[in-house]
Design goal:
This protein has one helix spanning 2-16, and strands spanning 20-26, 30-36, 40-42, 50-54, 61-67, 70-75, 79-81, 90-95. By secondary structure, the protein is mainly β. Keywords: Signal.
């Protein structure tokens, strides 16, 4: 019974923080960094020059990368880049049927 409770607590903890987006101010995961673990629109205050998006397939969450109001990328499955092909300064994270609008 104790093992079941332990597994249940781990499952709840995983569901609470299923995805994350990490944004760095310099290429190759250097410089200032911010991590986002909730749905919403986020502006780190710098141009994002490297990033990591980690999202389990079962969480139904996606990220849209924006340069101002212009869409420059969109991922649902995990993805990372040490040197993105386009600059961006905003990320929009949502799950399910939420629209991700720059």
């Amino acid at each position: 019974m104790m093992l079941f409770k332990f597994i249940f607590v781990l499952l709840i903890a995983q569901l609470a923080s299923a995805f994350y987006f990490e944004a760095w101010s310099q290429p190759n995961y250097h410089g200032a960094a911010k991590t986002y673990t909730h749905r919403g629109t986020f502006r780190p205050g710098y141009t994002i020059k490297s990033y990591k998006w980690d999202s389990p397939i079962w969480d139904d969450c996606c990220v849209r990368m924006c340069n101002g109001n212009r869409n420059v990328g969109y991922y649902c499955s995990s993805h990372s880049s040490g040197q993105p092909s386009a600059n961006f300064n905003k990320v929009v994270i949502g799950c399910g049927n939420e629209q991700l609008i720059c």
